[in-house]
Write a structure and sequence with these properties.
single chain, mainly alpha, 71% helix
Length: 452
């Protein structure tokens, strides 16, 4: 494999080829250490794969990331799938993508079982009581981070404000808000394009880390070359898998059954995750809590809190939603509640992540062939701005249920307000790690409930 010579003799030679077993071991390890949300997960992969192992050059890494950023779904998981596919074909992508979420699935399923079986114990209830105010602060932090990147001019601010009004005041469904924002972006990008060229992104500068196994000038491997026939075939296989599993669920349980409705609902949710997990959570709330009644508002907040403490993408909170929904639905009867919950969690996770694999396997060959720089389109810029307003609504929703757990007519929870303030100070000013803040708030909540 030809590479451009580097100045440093220690990094001038191309790393040895990576076996499938070596890659498997790394992707498995990544699944257990991928804390910190998408930014932290992408940073871990950059450090390991670009700087340390030199499996892929920074230019190729960022090129793949730019594509994943414009897709619905968890960009860090999709990036792992992309790199795994580029290195070891389809099975490499499947292994990388699955192992990125599998440890989180098992951990979150275990935590959900403890929550449902023992959540009423004073120590567990106290810990969850303390974690909820931290969640309010974390969601506000998410709105701030996305807003600081997306709201660069008055047009973007206006879109965010309209989205907030649409969901908070008018209670419009999230998909409609996304569709209208995309339309505004499409029209605005043609009429006033200067307002929709929102900068920002991951990693603008390029450093020389040495020769990489997949370097800037490494030819595109045969399996990564684009063709319309290949794209159509992958789309057919992906849709076929979706239809096959959905048909089995309909045949066994019927269309209106909990398992089938979960599969259909979370397929739609998977296609709406522009802007990250926080953006789609209002849609999940509207469906899972208000429409299907699979879980309560309090359980939704608890699920997000548990999702923040586990590795993997935050969208894994859907595993918790599925588990609780299966527990409540008791599809297998009252003597097999746990089995029903685990199956429901598996169904929800499968249908949430299936589109991510299809998007990567369909589009990555085109991206590798063009080697062009992808930028956010005007519709996606508008969607991202709308997401800020939606997330702010989510933060207010959580704050209401945490500060007035029995409703506005009830007593205000001053301890939760103070704890939220401390959590905001920790994450905004002191830049503390999110998991540390959650654990600290959980400990304070436990002490408060046990001794006050």
């Amino acid at each position: 494999m030809d590479v451009t010579n580097k100045n440093s003799p220690s990094i001038s030679t191309t790393p040895a080829p990576v076996s499938f077993a070596q890659a498997f071991a790394y992707w498995l390890k990544l699944g257990f250490i991928s804390f910190g949300g998408p930014a932290g997960q992408i940073s871990i992969m950059h450090h390991d794969l670009v700087e340390k192992k030199r499996w892929i050059s920074e230019t190729r890494f960022l090129h793949a990331l730019n594509y994943c950023m414009v897709l619905p779904g968890p960009e860090a998981q999709q990036l792992a799938t992309y790199i795994g596919w580029l290195m070891h074909r389809t099975w490499g992508g499947i292994v990388a993508g699955v192992l990125f979420v599998l440890p989180s699935f098992f951990i979150l399923t275990a935590l959900a079982w403890i929550y449902m079986a023992y959540g009423s114990l004073p120590a567990v209830a106290g810990a969850l009581y303390g974690i909820k105010p931290a969640v309010v602060a974390i969601v506000l932090l998410a709105a701030y981070r996305i807003g600081s990147r997306a709201l660069k001019n008055q047009v973007m601010w206006a879109i965010a404000a309209l989205a907030f009004i649409a969901i908070f005041v008018l209670n419009l469904p999230f998909p409609l808000i996304v569709a209208v924002a995309a339309l505004i972006g499409h029209v605005g990008g043609r009429m006033i394009p200067q307002y929709f060229k929102v900068g920002g992104g991951h990693g603008a500068s390029k450093k020389d880390y040495g020769a990489a196994l997949i370097d800037d000038d490494t030819p595109t491997p045969e399996h990564a070359k684009f063709s319309l026939a290949k794209m159509a075939r992958i789309a057919g296989v992906g849709i076929g898998i979706w239809l096959m599993v959905m048909s089995v669920l309909i045949g066994l349980y019927g269309w209106d059954a909990a398992f089938t409705q979960m599969a259909w609902f979370f397929t739609k949710a998977a296609l709406l995750t522009f802007g990250g997990a926080y953006a789609v959570l209002p849609y999940v709330y509207q469906g899972a809590v208000e429409h299907y009644h699979w879980l309560t508002p309090t359980q939704m907040i608890d699920g997000l809190a548990l999702g923040e403490t586990t590795p993997g993408p935050l969208i894994m909170v859907v595993t918790f939603v599925g588990f609780v929904g299966g527990w409540v639905s008791q599809v297998f009867g009252p003597d097999a509640i746990s089995a029903s919950a685990v199956v429901a969690a598996s169904i929800v996770t499968f249908f949430t992540f299936l589109p991510s694999f299809i998007f990567i396997f369909m589009g990555a060959p085109f991206i590798e062939t063009t080697h062009g720089n992808l930028k956010f389109t005007a519709p996606l810029s508008a969607i991202t701005a709308a997401v800020v307003g939606v997330i702010l609504n989510l933060a207010l929703f959580f704050a209401y249920h945490v500060f007035w757990s029995t409703g506005l007519a009830g007593t205000i929870d001053w301890f939760s307000i103070v704890l939220t303030g401390l959590a905001m100070l920790a994450v905004f000013r002191l830049k503390m790690n999110v998991i540390s803040v959650i654990l600290a708030c959980g400990a304070l909540g436990m002490l408060f409930k046990l001794f006050v």
